[in-house]
């Protein structure tokens, strides 16, 4: 009777040990999966941070360029006539792809000179 009790207790301990080992294995798998997910998220975060840094740097560079161009416009573009003067003369303003119908210097139209 005592021997049977000891065997029964030993079997119960073995079952408990197996259950504990299986639970530990399952928890280790979960931990590994969580660590992999954390690693992926960190890599994603680093990529997003690099992209944001690039955008900030690009934005700063473009802002400096805009300010430089504004300053050039304020100074009269380094000796070039301002766009107001160009429009007053009937010339095409920079950046305007259309062709203006302007009179030639001697008073005739452009078409009349081409016919001569």
Oligomer: single chain
Poorly predicted spans: 100-105
DSSP helix fraction: over 70%
Determine the mean pLDDT: 81
> Order of SSEs, N→C?
HHH
Count helical runs.
Answer: 3
SS-based structural class? Answer: mainly alpha
Strand residue content: under 5%
Radius of gyration over C-alpha positions, nearest whole angstrom: 41 Å
Count of β-strands: 0
Largest sheet: none
**Shape, please?**
rod-shaped
Through-space gap between termini: 133 Å
Give your account of this protein's structure.
- There is one protein chain.
- The chain has 116 residues and is mainly alpha-helical.
- 73% of the residues lie in helices and 0% in strands.
- It starts with a helix and ends with a helix.
- The model is unreliable at 100-105 (pLDDT under 50).
Layout of secondary structure:
Blueprint: H1 2-74, H2 83-88, H3 110-115
Summarize this structure briefly.
The protein has helices at 2-74, 83-88, 110-115. It is an all-alpha fold.
Key words describing this protein structure:
116 residues, 3 helices, mainly alpha
């Amino acid at each position: 009777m005592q021997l049977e009790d000891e065997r029964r207790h030993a079997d119960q301990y073995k079952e408990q040990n197996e259950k504990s080992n299986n639970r530990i294995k399952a928890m280790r798998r979960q931990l590994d999966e969580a660590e992999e997910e954390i690693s992926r998220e960190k890599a994603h975060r680093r990529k997003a941070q690099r992209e944001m840094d690039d955008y900030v740097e690009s934005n700063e560079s473009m802002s400096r360029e805009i300010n430089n161009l504004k300053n050039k416009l304020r100074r009269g573009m380094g000796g070039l006539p301002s766009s107001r003067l160009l429009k007053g003369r009937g010339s095409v303003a920079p950046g305007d792809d259309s062709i203006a119908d302007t009179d030639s210097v001697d008073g005739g139209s452009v078409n009349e000179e081409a016919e001569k």
